[in-house]
């Protein structure tokens, strides 16, 4: 019986190994050879899937983004408004080892995307999906009275999104001031900003 | 008479040229040869100043950070509290071509610093200076009643700083939603968050 290889699963497996290599050694340290070793494959086994480093880098980022989105989907299922927005934010913020590794992949990806239109498109698509969902939750929050009605939804979303992206970078780069506890407090500042403040008592 | 060379000025000149090269072509595109051409020097003229690409990259980032700080110093001179904080933020946000070029240098620097302790130190030092000044302005703002007294200064500063860093990245990477006008609006959202809200009328 011929051996059946699930090519989609193998691509995922390679991307997952590449993610670990990039997290440890940076994008400059990403070689097909190291990823093959990390995934436990023979040296030439990656070539049919990813002929070049750029294609592997692209698949690695796509994989990271899909992983994050899978977690987001599970986390926001059934939630609305500000609750959903907070759960989303907590999946993007590097609050555990898995998300820190993701941030370590995203950071080098950004600089690569600056000069590779194909990679920039992946990032644009990812951000479009995120901001679309964030806008819906922000509007839901407004309708439910959880979010200040005078806020401009688009600007509030972009400013929160840029906070999350900056925090992703800072959590791996400027660690002394961006521990898990620090990031939790920063998120509460950002979310607290959105809530209507309690009226002064009578 | 022997030719007098101002070595500090020449180093600055080279770093300025390197900044333009990185902004255009990315850190991977940074070569001593290209920077020499950009600065109008002979091919070997850079070696005595920057024997390696890493040293040139380090000098380029230090130069960008010094440039930003020079602008910040001019801009905040005589200002206090929330006014100073806003002026500072406007020098970090990529609101013109010069600051966009700076963001294009900072982004690749971040990912390089992830795996080079020497570069991470430069970034840590830069961020320490910034957060120290931001904290002072935030406290001044509180004392003057411009900033909500119940905010935790450290967390409010870090969350604003991470917003600024994320916006630096987004302004060069995700340009459709981070034009100068968009960034201005996002900054007003962040600063508006800090201000005490008007009490509802009688």
TrEMBL record, chains A, B:
Keywords carried by this UniProt record: DNA-binding, Repressor, Transcription, Transcription regulation
Entry-linked Pfam families: TetR_C_6, TetR_N
UniProt key word Transcription: yes
HTH tetR-type domain mapped to chain residues: 8-68
DNA-binding region: 31-50
Keyword GTP-binding carried by entry: no
SUPFAM superfamilies, A to Z: Homeodomain-like, Tetracyclin repressor-like, C-terminal domain
InterPro entries per record: BetI_C, Homeodomain-like_sf, HTH-type_TetR-like_transc_reg, HTH_TetR, Tet_transcr_reg_TetR-rel_C_sf
Family annotation (PANTHER family): HTH-TYPE TRANSCRIPTIONAL REGULATOR BETI, HTH-TYPE TRANSCRIPTIONAL REGULATOR RUTR
Record-given protein name: HTH tetR-type domain-containing protein
């Amino acid at each position: 019986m011929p051996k059946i290889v699930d090519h989609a699963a193998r691509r995922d497996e390679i991307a997952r190994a590449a993610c670990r290599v990039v997290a440890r050694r940076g994008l400059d340290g990403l070689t097909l050879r190291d990823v093959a070793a990390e995934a436990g494959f023979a040296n030439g086994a990656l070539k049919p899937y990813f002929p070049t480093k750029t294609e592997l880098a692209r698949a690695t980022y796509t994989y990271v983004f899909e992983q994050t989105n899978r977690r987001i989907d599970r986390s926001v299922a059934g939630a609305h408004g500000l609750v959903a927005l907070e759960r989303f934010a907590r999946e993007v913020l590097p609050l555990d080892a898995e998300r820190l590794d993701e941030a370590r992949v995203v950071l080098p990806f950004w600089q690569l995307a600056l000069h590779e239109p194909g990679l920039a498109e992946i990032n644009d698509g990812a951000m479009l999906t995120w901001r679309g969902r964030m806008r819906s939750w922000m509007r839901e929050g407004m309708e439910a009275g959880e979010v200040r009605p005078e806020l401009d939804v688009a600007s509030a979303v972009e400013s929160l999104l840029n906070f999350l992206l900056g925090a992703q970078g800072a959590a791996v780069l400027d660690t002394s001031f961006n521990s898990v506890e620090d990031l939790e407090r920063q998120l509460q500042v950002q979310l607290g900003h959105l809530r209507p403040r309690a009226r002064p008592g009578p």
